[in-house]
Design a protein that fits this description.
By secondary structure, the protein is mainly α. It contains five helices and no strands. The longest helix has 10 residues. About 60% of the residues lie in helices and about 0% in strands.
Length: about 70
């Protein structure tokens, strides 16, 4: 499961409702939630945040919390 999938599950988000509000297909939401190789586009993240009534910055931080800058040489 992806970070987005874990976040949506933790928040008990109704994915069918998110799909209707954002016009992101349920199949795409399923890919974004379960397949780590699927790339989340910025506009998708923003629309999902609006649909579940959370700050887009909060969702961004949660989804990419493990992303770090590379160490300098």
């Amino acid at each position: 499961m992806t970070s987005l999938g874990l976040y949506l599950t933790k928040k008990s988000v109704n994915r069918a409702l998110v799909s209707r509000r954002t016009r992101i297909s349920q199949a795409r939401l399923s890919q974004l939630s379960s397949n780590k190789s699927t790339k989340l586009r910025a506009e998708e993240l923003y629309l999902i945040a609006l649909a579940i009534d959370v700050d887009p910055g909060e969702l961004l931080k949660e989804v990419y919390k493990d992303l770090k800058l590379p160490k300098e040489c």
